[in-house]
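User: Last request for today: this protein with flavin-adenine dinucleotide, please.
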Amino acid sequence: MTATAAAALSPQITDFQLSPELASFRDYVRDYCQTHLGDAARFDAETKFPRDPVAAAAKLGLLRTTVAKEHGGTAMGNLASCVMLEEINAVCASTGVTISVHNSLVNSLLGKWCTEAQKSRWFPKLVTGEWLGAYCLSEAASGSDAAALRCEARKEGDHYVMNGAKLWITTGNEAKLFVVFARTGPDRVKGISAFVVERDWPGVGVGKKERKLGLRGSPTTEIVLENVKVPADCLLDKEGNGFLIALDTLDGGRLGIASQALGLARAAVDLIKAYLAAQVDAKGRPTATQPDQWTLADLAAELDAYRFLTWRAAVLRDQGVRCSTEAAMAKLSASRLANRAARAAVSILGQAGVDGTTAAERILRDARITEIYEGATDIQRLVVARGLVNPA
Ligand SMILES: Cc1cc2nc3c(=O)[nH]c(=O)nc-3n(C[C@H](O)[C@H](O)[C@H](O)COP(=O)(O)OP(=O)(O)OC[C@H]3O[C@@H](n4cnc5c(N)ncnc54)[C@H](O)[C@@H]3O)c2cc1C
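Assistant: Here's the final one, the structure of the complex with flavin-adenine dinucleotide:
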């Protein structure tokens, strides 16, 4: 390439900064966090759903970032949602996962796979937060191997009869709308279909609430479906496309969890920074040990790197480009970092790392889950490897 040709190239990557609009949105979300998330530790300690923070988020438009404007959304997309979720999760991961599931797993899915009539039916309640959404894929014998699900939807005239039980459903006992993946045929993958099921229909019940290591303010429950009569017009897209819908949606969901992990990692790094800054001798000279400084430097460098990895995948998804590999890379890296950063914060802070006087121990417990849900770490590694070996 000649120097003239090189000079004529339009720069694709310029300054690695958020646009002024996104920076201002991030500040708007930071204000929300400061005003409404002060009780994060209490929600964790009391295993209490952060009802008021979620309601405030709804009022401020944070539950409709992935919904088109014609359906009452702000259509801000995946990148803006990632920016928002990092901020919220840096303060309260229980609120963060509630909003992530509602936006990235439910609203995005409905926006992409519903008919206009279906959107007009459900979005008015979802964008205002009057209804929260939940995503029901996992079952007792199908977690990583989602295609092994057994919940059944049998067609009978103008409706389906649904029977089964979904496990580990985030917001399960608070949600009014469930996206349920159920078996409509014998084929392992093409026999799965996606449906919307409303909480108030006969036969829909909430079972056991899980007692969890972390994310204790976010209720995780069983959803029991007993002879539920699901109208045929609540089938999403077409019969047999459920597994495709589930996986496509998880690409976006993983961006939400990557952003959650970034928020948790950032919170841990901030605790370490503050702790090291306070290490001074009588004359005010820094006394932080070199190993602690090295740890901080390594974590901070990785945090910046994985944020860009996450934003790259979000931009691809906003452009309508398939990003399974990139989203899995982001979740894989950010969730591992969150765990390393949280462990480091607990170690460096010592007693204050474990006794609850700082958020370090809560961050450690919350971070653990980012390596499990929406695809465990080893599953992300498989997705990345498969994407690299057999690119679409
Ligand atoms: C707090 C929380 C909230 C959740 N919310 C939801 C929700 O809202 N909706 C929903 O549908 N589900 C939800 N889940 C379920 C979650 O998605 C599953 O826990 C997850 O997919 C892992 O499945 P599993 O727990 O059955 O573990 P398993 O699938 O049994 O996996 C256990 C371990 O084995 C490894 N493993 C499994 N298969 C392979 C393989 N083929 N190759 C290599 N390693 C493998 C995994 O990496 C993992 O470490 C939630 C889970 C948690 C913890």
